[in-house]
């Protein structure tokens, strides 16, 4: 096993690796240890009590973070006519139809989100092998196949985070930047976890939120007390 460097050893000082911290304390600890030269992303990992191999335990959805992710999201929209004009007016970075499909086939993908109107899905469907592995394929469940392109663009640019459980039932997401105020990170994290709770698969049994950890891009992980992650509204639901 590789030996940890001096920076990470220093960052681990003062952390109890067996303790599960309340969210507010964990955010403070992670922010204090995000001390490299760039603005690190704050990353949340959730271990869920699901088995995605079963269709009724698949988890996929989107969460709107109240304070955004701190990243600039570039949006491509597949639309024609009036809907294409609506997308341009709403701030889409790339708008097109067959011409956009051709660009993507040629490897020109300077965007992080793809939205399509329903009538464009026959064109978009042919791009599944290109967009799918990158997590860019429009999906009605994620609100990215819609006639309300203006709202979809606004949500994407405001900090909407898409999530999907991996084969082990773990969800990872960037929930802000180390430069964010601690209270904004707390609100973002609770909004994300609330979305996970609302999207609980029908086949999930037993404990749903099993374990969680918070870290910065280059920092050590801090274990979280999962009971501190959800908002009061979600707990009452």
Automatic annotation (TrEMBL):
Part of the 50S ribosomal subunit. Keywords: Repressor, Ribonucleoprotein, Ribosomal protein, RNA-binding, rRNA-binding, Translation regulation, tRNA-binding. PROSITE patterns: RIBOSOMAL_L1 (PS01199). This is Large ribosomal subunit protein uL1. It holds the Pfam family Ribosomal_L1. Gene3D superfamilies: 3.30.190.20, 3.40.50.790. It comes from Fodinicurvata halophila. Protein L1 is also a translational repressor protein, it controls the translation of the L11 operon by binding to its mRNA. Belongs to the universal ribosomal protein uL1 family. One of its GO terms (cellular component) is ribosome.
